[in-house]
Design a protein that fits this description.
The structure holds two protein chains of two kinds. By secondary structure, chain A is of the alpha/beta class. Chain A has two domains: about 10-150 and about 215-370, Alkaline Phosphatase, subunit A; about 155-205, no CATH class. Chain A has eleven helices and twelve strands. In chain A, strands 1, 5, 6, 7, 8, 9, 10, 11 and 12 form a nine-stranded mixed beta sheet that branches. Chain A has a three-stranded antiparallel beta sheet with strand order 2-4-3, with no helix packed on it. Chain A starts with 8 loop residues before the first strand and ends in a 10-residue tail after the last helix. The mean pLDDT of chain A is about 95. Chain B is built from 24 helices and four strands. In chain B, about 55% of the residues lie in helices and about 5% in strands. The relative contact order of chain B is 0.11. Chain B folds into two domains: about 5-300, no CATH class; about 385-465, no CATH class. Classes of the chains: A alpha/beta, B mainly alpha. Chains A and B meet through helix 3, helix 5 and helix 6 of A and helix 7, helix 19, helix 20, helix 23 and helix 24 of B.
C-alpha cells in the first residue's frame, strides 16, 4: 500500500496499435539492432542514452528527464506466451487477462468493483475517449465514459436545445422520465437506474472544468487534451481512482520514422505537462501513470516500417514510483527470437498484479486470474 | 386510408423485419396490406438491389477496402438504403448467431464476403446455409478448421457448430464433436494469392481430399464414412435443431429472451410460439423463408410490440431512416458505423464466438448516454429532411392542442407507444407554450423549435430504447 493519505489513483494510458519498443527504448549499441534495422533505426548520435546499452528515443526528452529524476520505471520484455500478433486479439488479452479463451470481463472493471463494491461513486473509474474499451466492461459496474469533458452529459448536443435557455429544464424532464416507476418491468427499471446514474455522473463532473485553473499550456493534441481532462477531474477530488485513456495509432507498418517521432513527441510532452500541472497544484503524490501497448514490433524492418511482433514494453511514472529498469531486455540474437520477434519474458499479468496489490491495495489473484511475479516499481 | 392500428402494426413489422420506416412509407405499406408486405419482405430478390455502381462511384475506396470502419460503413449504408429490408436484417441475424470476429480474422473484406453470403443464402434452407458457412473462408479461419487435419483434428469448428450454431449444449457428446471434426478435415482455405501486382484477391474455400479422414465415423447415432455435408444433414434432422433455431429467431424478431447460456435452465418465455416455429421448420424442411412467414403472421409476433431492446445497429439505422439524412451516398458514413461501435456493437467484430449479449445487456452507462445523445441529436435537428417532413406534417394540421401535438410526434417516430410517466412528461412539455400555431413567422419559428425539442425528448426516453 502506498504511504499516502489519499486513496491511490492510477492513470492508464493505452498506446494503441503496438508501439515499436526497439525504437522507443533503443538497444543502441547492439550490432543485431543495426543489422536488422537498416532503414527504420535511430542513429546512434541521436539517442538519449540510459546506460551503455539502452537509450531513449530522441523524441522522449521530457520522459528521459523524469527517468533521470527517478520517477519513471521501464518494464522490459512484457507480453505473454503465444503472442497472437493480431491487434484485436492481443488487446482483448490485455483487457480481459484471458490469453486462452475469449474473455468478456474487463480487468479494470473488476478493479472498479473491488474499489467500490456498492457502486456508490459512478465516477470511481472514468474513461476518456470514444466508446468503452473492453478493459472497462462488466455487467453491473457503472463506469463513466467521457468523449468531451466540456459538453459531457445527457442531451448535451441536441441542436434545438439551448444549453443556457432550455437544458436545465429538459434535464429535469429527463430525470422524471427515468424516475422509478412501479410495475414497468425489470428492463425499464434497469434503464431508469442507468439513466439516473449517468445524470448523477454528469452532474458531479460538471464542477471539474469550473474549479480548474492552471498556468500549464497543454499542446493541441488529442492525448494532451485527454490528459488535461484527467488532470481537471483528478484535481476536482471527485473520488475517481482509475482514469483510462488511449493514444495512437502506433501501427507503423509504413513510413514509420516521421509517424513514430510525432507519436512520442506528443505523448512525452503531454505526460510531462500533466505531471507539471499536478505539481503546480501541489498534487499527485497518490497518483501513478502506467503505459502499455498490445505488443512490440518485428525486429527486422520491412523497408519503411515494422510489422507485428511479440514482446513490448511498459512504463510507470509518478512521484512515488521507484524509477529504473525492471526485468531483462529480450535478446536480439537470431537464435533467441520468437518467429523473428523479441520473445516476451515477463507476463503482463504480473505487471497488473503489482499495480493492483502494491498500489491499489486489492487482491490481484481474482482479477488477473492467478498468481504472477510482481515487480518492485511501487 | 389505413387505420392508425394498421399503421402501428406496420411500424412494428418494419422495425423487426427491417430497420424501421418513416411515417409516409408506413402509410403506403399499410394501404397495400400486411400480408402483401410480408410477402414482399420475404422475397427480396424481386426488388432492386443496392446500386453498387452509384455507391462505389461516390466511395471508390470502399470496394474490398481493408479498414474495419469502411467495411462497417459499407454495411450500414446498405441497411439504411436497401429496398430489401429483410435481406439486411436476416444477414444481421446470422451475423449475430454465427458470430465471426475481426479480432482474429483480421481481414474485414473477408467478413464482408461472409455477410454477402448471408444475404444470398439467409432466407433459404438452413441446411444449405450451414454448408455455405462451413465453406466460408472467414469462418474456417475464425474457428481454425484450416488446422483440422486428417489424423490431427482441431475441434474448434466441430464444437461450435453444435454448441452455438445448430443444436445448443446438452444435445451431443464429446465423441460427437470429435467425429464431426474428423468429417470436416480437409475443409480448408486455398493457398492465398499474393496481392502484388494484381491487387487484392479474396480467400477461397478448398476441399483437400488428401487431408480428409475418410474413415468410418459414428455421429449422433448414425454410422458411415461421413463427410462434412453428411454431418450437417444429420444435424439439421435432429429435433434439437429446429428448437434451437426457433429460440434464436424468437429472441431476434419477436421478444428478448434470456441469454443463450441460460437456455438449458430457463424455459422459453412463450413455449407455444416456439412450438409453432418448430412445426414451421419441420413442415418446410428447414426453409427459413417459410418459418419467417409463419412468424410474421402469428399473433404472438403481432402482439409483441416494444418487447425488444434495440441493438445499436437497430437504434442507429432506425433513427437515421426516420431522419432521412443518409438517403443515398452521403459523407459521414464511417462516423455512423463508429456510432454503432461506441454504443457497443462493433459490426464484423462481435466480442467472441458467443456473440453479443442482447436485450437489456446492450445497455450500460456509457452506451445509454450515447444512445440518448445520438437519437435526440438527430431527431431534434429540424434541418434534416425526415425531421422537416415531420414538422411539415404537423403544420399541415393547423393549430394543434398540446395533447395532439404529443400524439402526432409519437406517431411520427414509430408509431411509438410510451409509458404513462413518459407521456405525462411530454404532455407537460407541450402544455408549457399552449397550442402549436403556425400563423405568423414568429409562431412558425417557435413551433418548429418546439417540435424539435419534443422529438428529442421522445428520442431520449426509455421507451425509445425498445423496438
Amino acid at each position: 500500500m502506498a504511504s499516502t493519505k489519499k486513496d491511490p489513483v492510477v492513470v492508464i494510458l493505452q498506446l494503441t496499435g503496438a508501439n515499436d519498443i526497439l525504437n522507443t527504448i533503443i538497444p543502441y549499441t547492439s550490432g543485431e539492432y543495426r543489422d536488422n534495422r537498416p532503414k527504420v533505426n535511430i542513429p546512434q548520435d541521436q539517442v538519449l542514452p540510459i546506460d551503455d546499452q539502452l537509450a531513449f528515443n530522441p523524441n522522449m526528452g521530457p520522459l528521459k528527464k523524469m527517468y533521470d529524476d527517478g520517477k519513471m520505471a521501464i518494464i522490459h520484455g512484457i507480453g505473454f506466451e503465444n503472442s497472437p500478433r493480431s491487434h484485436f486479439r492481443a488487446m482483448d488479452i490485455w483487457h480481459t487477462c484471458e490469453p486462452d479463451i475469449v474473455g468478456t470481463e474487463g480487468w479494470v472493471a473488476k478493479v472498479t468493483r473491488d474499489l467500490d463494491p456498492a457502486g456508490e461513486n459512478v465516477l470511481k473509474t472514468v474513461n476518456f475517449g470514444q466508446g468503452l474499451p473492453r478493459a472497462l466492461a462488466l455487467r453491473g459496474v457503472p463506469i463513466t465514459s467521457v468523449s468531451n469533458l466540456e459538453n459531457y452529459g445527457v442531451l448535451s448536443t441536441v441542436p434545438g436545445i439551448d444549453p443556457q435557455q432550455d437544458r436545465t429544464k429538459i434535464l429535469e424532464r429527463f430525470a422524471r422520465m427515468y424516475a422509478p416507476a412501479i410495475g414497468t418491468g425489470a428492463t425499464m427499471d434497469y434503464l431508469g437506474q442507468t439513466g439516473r446514474d449517468a445524470l448523477k455522473g454528469a452532474d458531479i463532473l460538471k464542477v471539474a472544468p469550473e474549479k480548474y485553473t492552471s498556468t500549464i499550456e497543454y499542446a493541441e493534441t488529442p492525448i494532451a487534451k485527454y490528459l488535461r481532462d484527467v488532470a481537471r477531474v483528478y484535481l476536482a477530488d471527485l473520488g475517481t481512482q482509475v482514469f483510462y485513456t488511449s493514444h495512437g495509432p502506433f501501427d507503423t507498418h509504413f513510413n514509420q520514422p516521421p509517424m513514430h517521432q510525432k507519436l512520442w513527441t506528443d505523448v512525452s510532452n503531454a505526460v510531462s505537462d500533466f505531471f507539471d500541472d499536478l505539481k503546480e497544484h501541489d498534487a499527485g503524490e497518490n497518483l501513478i501513470m502506467v503505459m502499455f501497448t498490445e505488443f512490440g514490433r518485428r525486429v527486422k524492418d520491412n523497408g519503411t516500417g515494422t510489422d507485428h511482433g511479440a514482446a513490448g514494453g511498459a512504463f510507470v511514472i509518478g512521484n512515488n514510483v521507484k524509477g529504473g529498469m525492471y526485468g531483462t531486455y529480450p535478446s536480439l540474437k537470431a537464435e533467441d527470437l520468437n518467429q523473428g520477434d523479441l520473445d516476451p519474458n515477463y507476463d503482463f499479468r504480473g505487471f497488473y498484479s503489482t499495480v493492483i496489490e502494491k498500489w491499489l491495495g486489492l487482491d490481484a489473484v481474482p482479477i488477473v486470474g492467478g498468481t504472477f511475479e510482481q515487480m518492485a516499481f511501487v | 386510408m389505413p387505420s392508425q392500428d394498421e399503421i402501428a402494426l406496420m411500424g412494428h413489422l418494419m422495425r423487426r423485419a427491417g430497420f424501421g420506416a418513416p411515417q409516409e412509407e408506413l402509410q403506403t405499406r399499410a394501404a397495400k396490406g400486411y400480408d402483401a408486405t410480408v410477402e414482399e419482405l420475404l422475397h427480396p430478390e424481386e426488388l432492386p438491389p443496392i446500386d453498387e455502381n452509384e455507391f462505389y462511384r461516390y466511395f471508390p475506396g470502399y470496394e474490398g477496402a481493408l479498414g474495419p470502419p469502411i467495411n462497417q460503413a459499407d454495411w450500414v449504408y446498405r441497411m439504411i438504403n436497401t429496398k430489401r429490408p429483410l435481406e439486411e436484417k436476416i444477414a444481421l441475424f446470422w451475423h449475430q448467431l454465427f458470430a465471426t470476429g475481426n479480432s482474429k480474422v483480421d481481414n474485414p473484406p473477408e467478413l464482408t464476403q461472409q455477410i454477402k453470403m448471408f444475404r444470398k443464402y439467409g432466407l433459404g434452407s438452413f441446411k444449405e446455409l450451414l454448408v455455405e458457412l462451413a465453406k466460408n473462408p472467414a469462418m474456417i479461419y475464425w474457428l481454425d478448421n484450416n488446422g483440422n487435419h486428417n489424423g490431427a483434428i482441431n475441434e474448434n469448428w466441430g464444437r461450435e457448430l453444435m454448441e452455438l450454431f445448430a443444436l445448443g449444449v446438452g444435445n451431443y457428446s464429446e465423441d460427437d464433436i470429435k467425429e464431426a471434426s474428423r468429417a470436416f478435415t480437409g475443409w480448408t482455405i486455398a493457398p492465398k494469392i499474393p496481392r502484388n501486382p494484381l491487387g487484392r484477391f479474396y480467400w477461397n474455400f478448398e476441399y483437400k481430399a488428401e487431408d480428409h479422414d475418410d474413415g468410418e465415423k459414428t455421429f449422433l447415432g448414425h454410422t458411415g464414412n461421413f463427410n462434412g455435408e453428411d454431418i450437417i444433414d444429420i444435424l439439421a434432422g435432429q429435433p434439437a435443431s429446429p428448437r434451437f433455431l426457433a429460440r434464436h429467431l424468437y429472441n431476434f424478431f419477436v421478444a428478448d429472451e434470456a441469454q443463450v447460456p441460460a437456455w438449458n435452465i430457463t424455459p422459453p418465455r412463450d413455449p407455444e410460439a416456439i412450438q409453432t416455429l418448430v412445426d414451421a421448420y419441420n413442415d418446410s424442411k428447414g426453409d427459413i423463408r417459410s418459418i419467417l412467414r409463419v412468424l410474421f403472421k402469428s399473433d404472438f409476433f403481432k402482439n409483441a410490440r416494444f418487447e425488444h431492446v434495440k441493438s445499436p445497429a437497430e437504434l442507429v439505422v432506425g433513427t437515421v431512416r426516420i431522419a432521412g439524412n443518409y438517403n443515398g451516398p452521403r459523407p459521414g458514413l464511417t462516423a455512423l458505423a463508429m456510432e454503432c461501435n461506441w454504443q457497443g456493437q462493433e459490426l464484423l467484430n462481435p466480442p467472441s464466438v458467443e456473440s453479443w449479449h442482447t436485450g437489456s445487456e446492450w445497455i450500460d452507462g456509457g452506451a445509454l448516454v450515447r444512445r440518448v445523445n445520438f437519437a435526440a441529436g438527430v431527431l431534434g435537428d429540424t434541418s434534416l429532411p425526415g425531421v422537416r417532413s415531420v414538422v411539415e406534417g404537423l403544420r399541415s394540421k393547423g393549430s394543434l392542442a398540446p395533447a395532439d401535438f404529443v400524439t402526432q410526434c409519437l406517431e411520427a417516430l414509430g408509431p411509438l407507444e410510451v409509458s404513462e410517466s413518459t407521456h405525462s412528461e411530454l404532455l407537460d412539455q407541450a402544455q408549457e407554450d399552449g397550442n402549436l400555431n403556425w400563423g405568423t413567422d414568429e409562431e412558425r419559428t417557435s413551433s418548429e423549435k418546439r417540435v424539435g425539442i419534443m422529438l428529442a425528448l421522445i428520442a431520449a426516453s426509455r421507451d425509445y430504447q425498445f423496438a
